[in-house]
Amino acid sequence: MSDTEIQDPIAELITNYNELNSSQIDQLPSEPSPLEFMRYVSKNTPFVVRGAALTWKATQTWTVPYLKSLLGETTQVNVAVTPSGNADSPYSLEQNGTTSLVFVKPHEEYQPFGEFLDFLTSSNSPTKEVRYAQTQNDNLRNEYLPLFSHVERTIPFARIALDCDPDAINMWIGTSHSTTALHKDNYENIYVQISGQKHFVLLPPICQPCVNEQMLEPAHYVRLPCEGAIPVPDSTDLGLVMEPHSPYVPFATWDPDSPMLNETEYSCLARPMKVTLNPGDMLYLPAMWYHKVSQSCKEGEVCVAVNYWYDMEFTGPLYPLTTFVRSVFNKEREIESDIEDEDGNDE
Amino acid sequence: MSDTEIQDPIAELITNYNELNSSQIDQLPSEPSPLEFMRYVSKNTPFVVRGAALTWKATQTWTVPYLKSLLGETTQVNVAVTPSGNADSPYSLEQNGTTSLVFVKPHEEYQPFGEFLDFLTSSNSPTKEVRYAQTQNDNLRNEYLPLFSHVERTIPFARIALDCDPDAINMWIGTSHSTTALHKDNYENIYVQISGQKHFVLLPPICQPCVNEQMLEPAHYVRLPCEGAIPVPDSTDLGLVMEPHSPYVPFATWDPDSPMLNETEYSCLARPMKVTLNPGDMLYLPAMWYHKVSQSCKEGEVCVAVNYWYDMEFTGPLYPLTTFVRSVFNKEREIESDIEDEDGNDE
Ligand SMILES: O=C(O)CCC(=O)C(=O)O
Ligand SMILES: O=C(O)CCC(=O)C(=O)O
């Protein structure tokens, strides 16, 4: 090696980013103009507007009895069922004495809306499972259509700035038992809290080298009894089914709330941005930001949120540069594992 | 090495960028609104508005005699003097049988404005040197102040979008003999052609690995005779003085118009964007884009342009990611040169 010190470009990237950007979220006094919003889109930086949706009919009226009366006790809704609130997340599977990390999806089933809400709000449910209405398929303009007129049809500043209507408007109904694992979406996201609280932990796209993305074998929960299902220690009602014919899923395995587990050499450089949303608060979550979301609400109540996904811009340098960070990190990883392999061979 | 093929992240970055972005410049039918402009800033993508400044008094009145009458024949202006129109550019210096690339700056001197214009417009000048008024120090609001009221004081859409006034407004007066070498600036640039033509060759910031940036020893031209000056083959009037106590200058050494000289392994992937500005045309040149600029005008006339530099945004991911591309490229280079050194030692 030469005298010149070969620096670590990835560590430098994260450090430079941290020096130029705050890890405290910007709080705007009111909804931004389209131009002010576009400045945030341009710098791919989140903000929150406290109380922006306090005047929405949804925020003012969506109690559990009212939701039931409007949507109907018996309307069937799609519900994600898991033993411990871990839908779409990495899961340590112990089998035949070995542990492997798999990507576990919820058991999905249709339930009468009334029964679903009763389950969420009763403290002594018959089963110990966790339920969460969390389909991200524009459900507010489909399954939950009778409720749609209680929220904005689009977020005006975002529609004007981005010059498009939302691709999807999603309803989220759950309790403090559900957590959404750290992941990212290729959408500009306006997230509005209606009832209860949501706790976001956010990381910018340049933190890809911190989140320890792995290719995970997919699996999903099923209701027992089910032939071939793998029992899971946390449940007598649910088991796991592997999906040997589905492609592996690239997924973050580091959790900023348990920073010493599954970390990479770069995880310690991450400066997570934390924000809690109260009813009426509106969050701008820029495209490609990693987010982990947990929630809390009072006994007998539910956490309800509505979010608007707008198409992100793929032209310009940001999207290819984000891919570049991943490729540089993966290449470094491959080289390191090759060196380890070679060292192994020597022994 | 393992079976997994280790791809080249830099080649992938440039290829991905090329697939998502056109190398033809967008032509807008009229000046954008602040919001439309911000969308271009956000995607760091150039555009041109043909004829946007045709109504400016400058475009309509700035002939050579009129300029003289307004600024005064005898007003002193700063002029860059070079043997062949190569101010602020890499230069191959042959000395003691070896060739080295240095960074050469012009000889700067003050000349009466009338004399400067007479020199530019006369076909048989007494000396063969090239002159160019090109100080980038807000000269239009200083040296050329009497002319300032003939152009817009700020570009309204840019002022509103970027929420600031221009940091500098620069006047450029030259002829087809001057070329500005490929370089980049940390400014959002609105460039307006007043008379003659400018020919831009543009490369996005992600093309850093294509431009073969080198650390060059600085030098500047001086009028001869001058003790210690190095003669240059292209001139009997000018010589070169090295600056041994000044820091080396990082500078692009690849010229997209001579693609086989000084190229890197990535230069062939660059897709230069070319645009010629005619009088009245307005170019948005986004921050950090590489640009090479040549010019042409009729015999007896001059090329005049005015540009507005607005501060760029350093928050967000783009600036640190641009540094990251440079660091990854430099590290790859260092590793390659280390391997070559080691191979050399083995022989
Ligand atoms: O609210 C949640 O549980 C997750 C929200 C989310 O992932 C999103 O809005 O993209
Ligand atoms: O007009 C020229 O010669 C160069 C212009 C330039 O480099 C700039 O506007 O930054």
Biggest sheet of chain A, in brief? 6 strands, mixed
Low-confidence spans of chain A: pLDDT under 50, at least 5 residues? none
The bound ligands are: 2-oxoglutaric acid
Largest interface, by Cβ-Cβ below 8 angstroms: which chains and how many residues each? A-B, 48 and 48 residues
First-last Cα distance of chain A: 24 Å
Give the overall pLDDT of chain A as a whole number: 95
Query: Could you give the count of β-strands of chain A?
Result: 19
What is the multimeric organization of the chains shown? homodimer
User: What is the H/E string of chain A?
Assistant: HEHEHHEEEEHEHHEEEEEEEEEEEEH
The helix fraction of chain A, in percent, is 10-25%
Radius of gyration of chain A: 22 Å
Query: How many helices of chain A does DSSP assign?
Result: 8
Beta-strand percent range of chain A: 25-35%
Q: What is this structure, in a nutshell?
A:
By secondary structure, chain A is α+β, with helices and mostly antiparallel strands. Helix content of chain A is 24%, strand content 32%. In chain A, strands 1-2-17-10-19-8 form a six-stranded mixed β-sheet. In chain A, strands 4, 5, 12, 13, 14 and 15 form a six-stranded mixed β-sheet that branches.
